[in-house]
Amino acid sequence: MTRILDIDMDFFLNDTAYWQTGKGRIQDDYVQPWKEREFRNFLEQNCL
């Protein structure tokens, strides 16, 4: 059996939009995704 980890990259953003209602997308200038190095470091250090 092959196991695949499927991660929603939207989880790794620099801020949280508490006010978002679910109608439409958050503006790109409000939240930014983590840099690839930060993301890889988080996975390697915290998820092995």
What this model shows, in words?
The chain has 48 residues and is mostly helical. Helices cover 23% and strands 0% of the residues. It is built from 1 helix and no strands. The chain has one helix at residues 36-46. The longest helix has 11 residues, at 36-46. The radius of gyration is 14 Å and the shape is extended. The mean pLDDT is 78.
What features would you highlight for this structure?
48 residues; mainly alpha; extended
Q: What's the quick description here?
A:
The chain is mostly helical.
User: pLDDT under 50 segments (min length 5)?
Assistant: none
Strand-residue proportion: under 5%
Helix content: 10-25%
> Could you spell the SSE succession in H and E letters?
H
Shape category: extended
Radius of gyration: 14 Å
Helix count equals: 1
Q: Give the overall pLDDT as a whole number.
A: 78
Strands, total number: 0
Distance between the termini: 20 Å
What's the story with the biggest beta sheet? Answer: none
**Which structural category do the helix and sheet elements fall into?**
mainly alpha
